[in-house]
Amino acid sequence: MVLAHAGALLSGSAEGVTAYVDADVREPERIIELAAHVIDFDRPVALSLIALLHFIGDGDEGGGGEGAYELVERLTERLPAGSCLVLSQLTGDFDPESVEKGVASYAAGGVTLVPRSHRGVSRFFDGLELVEPGLVPVVDWHPELSLGELPVETQPVPIYGAVARQP
Fold first, then answer.
1. Rounded to whole angstroms, what are the CA distances from 5 to 2, 20, 68?
2. Local structure of 90: helix, strand or coil
3. Do the beta carbons of residue 128 and residue 76 sit within 8 Å?
4. Which of 8, 50, 69, 150 is at a distance of 20 to 30 A from 63, taking alpha carbons?
């Protein structure tokens, strides 16, 4: 359904091309290969991994694949200098009980859900330069830019987020 919707919405223009890459994040070489048809990897680009990595385990997980850290490293090592990684990740740091209930619920449906601590999320940015304010709860990442559509939460959303530059 996502592919059909993307196909209906995406088109090129005089300013550039918009494309949808149909690939699994666990296939970083395929992603880079397909994206190279529309992205100039000699110029800075943005890699957006929003609300994705908490569905990828830290290791083999019995499936013969790489863990989340290795996948991010393989994707970012191909990015030219000046490129940015934008990433958000579920955490249990603020409300461990509620997050564990969510993890159990997803597991009952056969879905991996891996919350990571602040330290665990910061590993995704190894070798990159964090943009201010750094790795923070997403509601604290430049709240002055909010247009005010959403109500202000009284407690942190259980998701960390950050932007970092490839040096």
1. 5, 10, 28
2. strand
3. yes
4. 50
Tell the burial category of 5 from Cβ atoms under 10 Å away from its Cβ (0-12, 13-18, 19+).
exposed
Token digits of residue 77: 């090592």
- For 37-62, the pLDDT digits (tens) are 888 999 999 999 999 999 999 875 54
Whole-prediction pTM value? Answer: 0.83
**DSSP class of residue 19?**
-
Q: How confident is the model at residue 153 (pLDDT cuts 50, 70, 90)?
A: low
49: helix, strand or coil: strand
What are all long-range contacts of 71-76, with beta carbons under 8 Å and residues at least 24 apart?
A: 71/25, 71/26, 71/28, 72/124, 73/126, 74/28, 74/29, 75/28, 75/31, 75/32, 75/47, 75/49, 76/47, 76/127, 76/128, 76/166
The one-letter amino acid at 135 = L
Q: What are 55's two structure tokens?
A: 């569905």
Query: Which residues are bridge partners to 136 per DSSP?
Result: 161
Q: Which of 66, 70, 95, 88 is nearest to 103 (CA)?
A: 95
Domains of the chain with bracketed CATH: 1-39 (no CATH), 44-165 (3.40.50.150)
